[in-house]
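Posting this for the archive.
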Amino acid sequence: MLDTHAYARLSATDIAYLVNGGEVTAGEVVDAALAVCAERDGALRAFTAMWADSARALAAEVDASVARGALLPLAGVPIAVKASEGARSVQNRRLVAAGCVPIGATSVPRAGTTHQTYGSTDRGPTLNPLDPAWSPGGSSAGSAVAVAAGIVPLATGSDGAGSVRIPAAWCGVVGFKPTNGVLPARDRAGLNSPGVLTRTPVDAAAYLRAVTPGGLATSPATGTPRVVWTPTLGYADTDPDIADTARRTLDRIASAGLCGLVRPTVRLRDPAPAWTALRAGTSDRDTDALIRANARALSQAFEEADLIATPTTPHPPHGHDGPGPRMSVALTWAFNLSGHPAISLPAGRTPNGEPVGLHLIARHHADAALLDAAERWRSTAAEGEAPAW
């Protein structure tokens, strides 16, 4: 039987290697995941439903396939599924085809509220593993918590304004939004992209290969990426402690020779009016003008830089009473409008101990290069990452 503490430290790619190699079975891995969930989720409330019977049945199918000689890229990997998305979404069906085993549905915000950066269950609010007083972010709240707590190494989410990246930053894990259109959008406006929560960029890359027909369409990065830093994108009200913490992490990465900092100015217009209009289906000439202006500014930035870096959120995690007037999405939703791929990496803590994410944005369809850079930076950027349980 797989020890639960050993299981909770395994990455998705570790598990697939062990299952494909016959060192453990998918059934043993799923039993370990369910046991860890039973130990930890009572205090955290990441899950709204558990699918133990179907998970064990699917794990048996994976084991039978491996016994017949199949090599599944994510063999036996337990995953959590964002409740509002469901197990039959395109990305979840493709993950199952790659060998993943969904074990349950994870919390999202309660319907009928404007407060989206939290999670709700019939047992109470979802709690942040780093500090139960903090919101875990949202709307992919339970998915981030399930990954941060070691219940699963990979959980699906969706990101319409930052809903994968914000909980990743506040729970100390990795949150990746692919280029818009790589997977079918979950809204008519095309803003809401499927995405993933993991503990390593390597697992995010394995996810992308699994859900992309034919695998990744672009090659990994070559050479040292050029990075432009902006704490505000020209409009956001970013707390100095958040900006300083994320910038120090980027400076460590640059000092290690893993990137080169360049100095073009990135000044966007506040995307709020355009995002709101597109979401409501009321876009007009002003909406189009704002989108075109930001597209020009981003195109100019990417002429001189390979990546744009910002903090993931402009402020630290708020409490369960909500963010008040603060815009948690201020630094993320511009890239739901523009469609660029983006990732949040753990980037340490403020002097008050609050978690901070480093937000990286790449050119359209440079997803592989973005994930490759993130993995090469991981050991340098990981100070303040969620502790192993």
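The radius of gyration is 20 Å. Residues 285-304 form the longest helix (20 residues).
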